Every structure is written in C-alpha cells, then in structure tokens.
# Entry
Amino acid sequence: MTMVFLNKEIRDGDNPDLTEERKTATFDTNKMAEVIYGSEKLARRRREISQAVSLIPELADSKPLPFLSRNEKILESTRKVTALNEHLPRLINMNDEDEAWHIHSEVIGFEGNPLALHHSLFIPPLVIQGSDEQHEKWLGRAKRREIIGCYAQTELGHGSNIRKLETTATYSLSTQEFILHTPTINALKWWPGALGKSSNHAVVVASLIIKEQNYGPHLFMVQIRDEQSHEPLPGIAVGDIGPKMAFNGADNGFLGFNNFRIPRGNLLNRHCNVEVDGTYVRPPHDKMNYAGMIRVRSRMAAEQGTFMAQALTIAVRYSAVRRQGFLENKSQEVKVLDYQTQQHRLFPAIARSYAFIFCGFETIQKYETLQNEMNSGNVSLMADLHALTSGIKSVVTYQTGEGIEQARMACGGHGYSMASYISEIYGCAIGGCTYEGENMVMLLQLARYLVKSVELAMRGKPGDLGPMVAYLAYPDIKVDLVTGPEAYVKMFQHISKRQSIKATEKFHRKMESGVSRDEAWNQCAVELTRASRLHTRLYIIETFIRRVDSIEDLSIKMVLTDLMNLHLNYELLDVASYALEDGFMSSTQMGFIKNQLYSSLEKIRPNAVSLVDSFQFSDLQLRSNLLNFLFQVLGRRDGHVYQNLFEWAKSSPLNQTEVLPSVTQYLKPMMEKAKL
Ligand SMILES: CCCCCCCCC/C=C/C(=O)SCCNC(=O)CCNC(=O)[C@H](O)C(C)(C)COP(=O)(O)OP(=O)(O)OC[C@H]1O[C@@H](n2cnc3c(N)ncnc32)[C@H](O)[C@@H]1OP(=O)(O)O
Ligand SMILES: Cc1cc2nc3c(=O)[nH]c(=O)nc-3n(C[C@H](O)[C@H](O)[C@H](O)COP(=O)(O)OP(=O)(O)OC[C@H]3O[C@@H](n4cnc5c(N)ncnc54)[C@H](O)[C@@H]3O)c2cc1C
# Structure
C-alpha cells in the first residue's frame, strides 16, 4: 500500500528512517520536479519513461558492470543501446532531446556507449554546418542509424589550440577532391568517443589547404570503415586508445589518414565553401566552425547539475539511514544527516545542483536563439555566448567535481566502494573539466571578453557594454545584506567588477613596462581566471534568483528560497576575502553571512531528502536496483542498504569460489615453505 502525503512517494516497507524524512517535507516532490525539469509535462514524461523502462527486462543491466572486463563492458553497453533503440519509438518522442537524454542516462548510466556521441556530437555539427543537400545525403541515414558517427577534432599533439591541428585537407583542383593526410604521429586524431571500434563515419576537423594557403580548421564528413565488412577503408588507420578513468563502455579512438581522398562535397558547407576552381567562400563569422562547441558547452550546466544531483541523492538518502554516534539522546544513535558538518558538506551542493540546472535552462535557450539567428545569417550573438558558456562550463564542471567528491566522503567507507556508484559518476563528470575545452583555457577565453569590456568602461563607453557585463560600469554603493538577495547580487557585482578591473590594470601595467602582449597576458593569467570565475558565479546566482522569483506555488517558493539563501551565503562567504580586502564588506557583515548560512542548514534539514527525491531518479538510474542486477545499492529509494550491500559483496566473482588460484599458486606454497 502506498501512503499519499505531500511527498507522494511514501511506500510501505521502506526503511522507516527514510519514511520519517519524507513525512517532514513541506512541499510536493512532483511539483518540485516540474520546476526542476521546466514543466509538468516534462516531469511527468520522465516518470512515465522510467516506469516503462522498468518493465522491459532487456533494458536492465545483465551483469554488475564493475565486475566486467573492458570488452565485456563495451559489449554490454552496445547490447543495451541497440535494445533501447528498438524500443525507443514507443517510449519517447523521437524529436525531443530531453526525453532522449533522460532515457539514455536511465538505461546506459555513466559507462558511455558507442552511440552517445553519434547523437550529441556527430548529428549536431552535421545539422549546424551541413547544407540542405548534405542533410539530404547524410542526415536521414544518420538519424535512422544506418551509419554511426563521431566527432574527430582533437589530436595526439593538440586539443586546446585548434588552429594548430596538423591533419590537413588539401584541395586537389585536378580531381576536385580533398586529400586528408596525417603528416606526423602527433597529428593522429586522439580521444574522439566511439571512434575506435564502433563508428563507420566521422565529422573530421582538418586544416583546409587550397593552393598552399592554410584556411584553418574546417569540418569534413568522412567515411572511415566499409559499411558491409566494417573494416577500415584503405588509407585509414583507426583503433581504441585504451582504458580511461571512466567511460569504459565506450571506445574513444585514434585515427590517421594516408592521403585519403574524399569528394569536394564532403566539406560541410552551409556557411563556407570551396568552389570547383578552388575559390574559398568565407563564413559570416571567423569562428563559425566552432559553433558546435558552443552548443555542447551550453548544455553542460544542466547536464553537470544532474550528475551532481545523482551523487547527492545517493549521499543524502544514505545519510538518513546511516546512524552513528550520539547527540543529546544517548539511547539512540543519530542519523549522520543530523550533524552540522554533514549538512554543510551536502546541502550547499544540493543548492548548486538546482542552480546549475536553472542556469542550464537559460543557456540552452540562449543557444537556441543563437542557432536561429545564425540560420538567418546573424552571428552577432556568438561572441557573447562563447564567453558566457566558456565560463559556465568551467565553473560548473569544477564545482560539480567538488560536490560529487564531498558526496562520496559523506558516505564514509561505503562511499569508497563501487557499490555507492559515486566513483563512476565522478569519473564521468570530472571529464567535463577537460572535454569541450580545458577549463583554464576556457576561463581565459571569457577573460578576453571581460578585459575588453573593462576597457570599454574605462574609455567612458559604458553604453556599449552588453547586459551581461553592464555592472562593470556601476558605481560602488555599499549595501546592507539584511535587505535580501538584491544586496547579495550587488556585493557580488562589486567583487567581480573589482577583480576584472584589477586584472585588466595589471595586464596594462605589464604591457606599459615593455612586456609583450602575450607574455603580459600569461603573467596575469591567474588573476584573469579569478575574474572569470567570479563573473560566472555572479551569473549563476542571478539565474537562481530569477528562477525563484518566477515561481508561483508558495510551498515550492518557500523551500527554494531557503535553498537560494543558502547558495547566496555559501557563495559569498567563499569569496568574502575579495570584499574584505577593500573594506566593501565589514567583519560584522561577514558574521551575518555565516549565521545566515548555519540557519539555512537548519531550515533545509527537514526537506533534505525530499529535495533530492524531487530529481526523481529511478533506482535503475542510480544503479541501486538489486532486483534487476546485483549492482550498486547505496542510493536505493527504499533505504534498505545493509542487506543489499551484503548481497552485492556475495555477488563478487571472487566469492564464487572458496579457494582462489592466488592462494593455491602462491600463498599456500609460501606458508608451506615457511613451515619447513
Ligand atoms: C552520460 C555522460 C555523457 C557525457 C558525454 C561526454 C562526451 C564528451 C565529448 C567531448 C567532446 C570534445 O571534447 S570535442 C573537442 C572539444 N575541443 C575544444 O573544446 C577545444 C577548445 N579550444 C577552442 O575552442 C579554441 O581553440 C580556443 C581556445 C577558443 C582558441 O581558438 P583560436 O586560437 O582560434 O582563437 P583565439 O585566437 O584564442 O581567439 C580569437 C577570437 O575568437 C573568439 N572565439 C573563439 N572561439 C569562439 C567561438 N566558439 N565562438 C565565437 N568566438 C570565438 C575569441 O573570443 C577571440 O575573440 P577576440 O577576443 O574578440 O579576438
Ligand atoms: C572523456 C573525454 C572525451 C573526449 N571526447 C572527444 C571527442 O569526442 N572528440 C574530440 O575531438 N575530442 C575529445 N576529447 C578531447 C578533449 O576535447 C581535449 O582533451 C580537450 O579539449 C583538452 O585539450 P588537450 O588534451 O590538448 O589539453 P592541453 O591543452 O594539452 O592541456 C594541458 C594543460 O595545458 C594547459 N593549457 C593549454 N593551453 C593553454 C593556454 N593557452 N593557456 C593556459 N593553459 C593552457 C591546460 O590548462 C592544461 O592544464 C575528449 C576528452 C576526454 C577526456
């Protein structure tokens, strides 16, 4: 029997400690899910999809993944994703990217799979950069998965500095073909997901050469394997790059070309072209070929927010059933969630998860606007969005890594077991600090934009500043934090503005002292990245406040206001030294922030479990469902952790035999020898 309470999912048979938590909720988790996922329909669809998936046995893991070899992992992830594809048209709206993302993370989890990049990095550049004719030729086939593709940009020797990619695509006037070539070992493509063994096509980024002139990186559609035999085509060397920190269900690969010819029509040419006679037609923006990267980065805030939310769901539920030590009542040990230190570890990270997801909605919408504008030839929004998403991808990936690691530690010893699933989530999420632009490199991209903006403000042209950086020209007026969120924003604006100005002035001083521009930039780089982080954290705070302001349901608004206040105080405390330094913040204000922070922890405590329940991750998604497979068990919705941990241990292949060969071959002879 299911008891209906504000939190709609209280079930008989659940661990009573968790049931108790769910009863103290002051809001309805279904309603909160609507806020998290953007609408009643989206939240409901997620639940419906999870429910439907749970009824299809072949979509469950057939074996516990941590116990599998690399080959078995790839086989299993491929089995699941192909089985999923069979069911997909019945389960989701095939045109809805959110539904597709949800069902894949539900079924595949964090191991990766050979089609993940096909949908997220092969089809999108084809859509963005391909002409109508090229869509006609490849898009349908790709969408129907007649062909499998990946995105091959990074090389062994270069990832960040795309202008120095060494793979060349030389236009041959006589045959009207491009000749792809890998001139050195360093020029081998290296890292692309699903390139090694699964893909038979790739969008390849190579330097376009026409009549010995280098026109920089361009995108080409390249078939790399035979469609029948799946053997590499002559002139192609391709393979897997070996095991990684995570994503071991996917075959990240290498790729080399030996004067491999492709037709002229394989240059993705919606925005640029090479005509038959070798005339180059420029795109409307120099960095048009980088647009796909803006797209992926714009999706990373929401993506990473949900990664962290999954780790926190596991850690918070576990913290409510784990009892250890005493507070006042010496007859019963307390839930570890009652310790202030535990709350301080987990609750600010919950707030960040919400903040990143809300911020993610805004960036995805901004990207969609950019895409529409680009389609009609307007590229004026590109620079702003490039700067914004560069900062956001860097800050959210780093803070998500911190949050997931705290979630792991908050689970004590069991957090270190793969039964927690947290290490797998961490391995996947932390890759985000590197892929789609190494974080420092991307922070420095945003810094270029901030420096230019400060220079505009200094030249007395504040009117030329975009809305995102208008605050750089605001006067400094002291604020009283008691007055609420707006005062926090103003305090943060002051801190961010001051750091941007300080870094810019330092940069100018260096140049004035005779140091070259590039060298001066490098000597200020740490200060510049600090400016970028502050600017981005300010932006995230503002999106959180905007989202909470827009909510009508009072019970939801109240708990999200608590969460937002926690976020504001936690973030400001973290950067307070910047404002204490110039006296903009007083030590009294600092004390106020700390007290507010501790009081937010207390306010959130009764809602903690329901705040993570609201993400509505299924046990399958958290790999906590022991019914389908003996797999990770710590974040189970029903809270029955201990008996399932024991089952998990029993399922270890090591326990399938009492005496291991390691004992018979080595330990026993050693002990026997010692007895002689
Ligand atoms: C379940 C789990 C699932 C999870 C599934 C996980 C899957 C993971 C898949 C991963 C895929 C990948 O990693 S794919 C590979 C991704 N690779 C990257 O992201 C590479 C990062 N590097 C870059 O983007 C570039 O090289 C960059 C750093 C920007 C430098 O480029 P350049 O040298 O050409 O440019 P610069 O000289 O520095 O700058 C020149 C100007 O161009 C502007 N500029 C630069 N990029 C711009 C852009 N995109 N849009 C607009 N403008 C741009 C700058 O602001 C400058 O403007 P001014 O200031 O006005 O001059
Ligand atoms: C899980 C995963 C999946 C990936 N998938 C793909 C894929 O599908 N397709 C693809 O093409 N690529 C992929 N990549 C590659 C990825 O995009 C690159 O690794 C990434 O862009 C970083 O580039 P790099 O390896 O050259 O790092 P480097 O640039 O070599 O970074 C090394 C260090 O140098 C520093 N550094 C470099 N340049 C500067 C600078 N200008 N200023 C200051 N510091 C600097 C960095 O901050 C870093 O600390 C993937 C990578 C991973 C980890």
